[in-house]
Amino acid sequence: MLNRIYRLIEARTIEPVERYAAIDADTVVVRPTHLSICNADQRYYQGKRSARVMAKKLPMALIHEGVGEVVFDAAGAYAPGTRVVMLPNNPVEEDEFIAENYLRTSKFAGSGYDGFMQELCILPSRRVLPLPEGIDIHVAAFTELVSVAVHAVTRFEGIAHGRRENIGIWGDGNLGFIVSLILHVTHPDARLHVIGRNSYKLADFTFAHRTYLSSGIPEGLLVDHAFECCGGEGSTSAIDQIIDHIRPEGTVSLMGVSEYPVPINTRMVLEKGLRMFGSSRSGRVDFERTLQLHREHPEMAQYLSALVGSVIPVSSVKDIATAFDADVRKQMGKTIMEWNM
């Protein structure tokens, strides 16, 4: 079938192209309805990646967070009109020890392979999951980001020791909010301590035990485990503070993305016997757990609705630029494109 794809060909330049897509017995055709802009999309759109990376990745359609409606399912499992979340990671092999999102052969939408900025997304059935009934569609649009947090928490559950009375979360942005929320619903007995730089952002963490400005952490604060959700320039100071405030043999989950190497006080990592692990992206099992958590804890969507920032109707290439420009100016939350292309 013929499909129109909206590809980034150079910084801030989107070009529609038409391509033929084959349909087989395992194909699900989805019409995207709501797409969420991620910081990774912005780095490509604004040309903030290196010239080498831009030359290697482009042209490609952006966006890896999105939902849509089924148009056609070759196997008949989904009726037309069924609302689904689209999974960006497309593994081409299985490994006994390595998860699909860490396999170097996996193809990830919007990172060297076309993302969801398309008229229709032609996907294998394993890359589609039905949304819970009644979920806020704008919240559902960034299910992928929530699944990343779920993935990190799931890994934490398998790595960290069993004393989980006090957990620290460094970062008051979208990722820190979501990780804290997932910990709140999956570990309700844990006291969550959130550390950030902005009091107005910390005010939204109503489910946390305590919040602190990073410039005023009490000397006596000690956590059993910690999550670093800052990234960028904030990673260095966040990791330093975590090492200072974590108990011996605690586990540190690194989630913030930085374009540059981050120094770590390895002397104290060794002295305290800390475990540090990184988490990135997610796989189908993480999406499945995320959707199940939504079904079991409908209040999750209510909390996540606080992250819905701008909702921008998109029916032209000019509207795409408007959405990305609005997203750059935001201080908090997610920019959602109501996709009408």
Q: Order of helices and strands, N to C? A: EEEHHEEEEEEEHHEHEHEEHEHEHHEHE
Shape from CA axes? globular
Task: Supply the helix-strand structural class.
Answer: alpha/beta
As a whole number of angstroms, the C-alpha radius of gyration is: 20 Å
Number of strands: 18
Low-confidence stretches: none
Number of helices: 11
Q: Helix proportion of residues, in percent?
A: 25-40%
Q: What is the first-to-last residue Cα distance? A: 17 Å
Q: Beta-sheet strand percentage?
A: 25-35%
Mean pLDDT: 96
Largest sheet: number of strands, sense, barrel closure = 7 strands, mixed
Structural summary, described in words:
This protein has helices spanning 39-45, 51-57, 137-140, 143-159, 174-186, 199-202, 234-245, 266-272, 284-296, 299-304, 317-329, and strands at 2-10, 13-20, 27-36, 60-61, 65-73, 83-86, 89-90, 107-108, 121-124, 128-130, 166-170, 191-196, 210-213, 225-228, 251-254, 275-278, 308-314, 334-339. The two termini are 17 Å apart. Helix content is 30%, strand content 27%. With 341 residues, the protein is α/β, with parallel strands linked by helices. The longest helix has 17 residues, at 143-159. The strands form 4 sheets. Strands 3, 5, 6, 9, 10, 17 and 18 form a 7-stranded mixed β-sheet that branches.
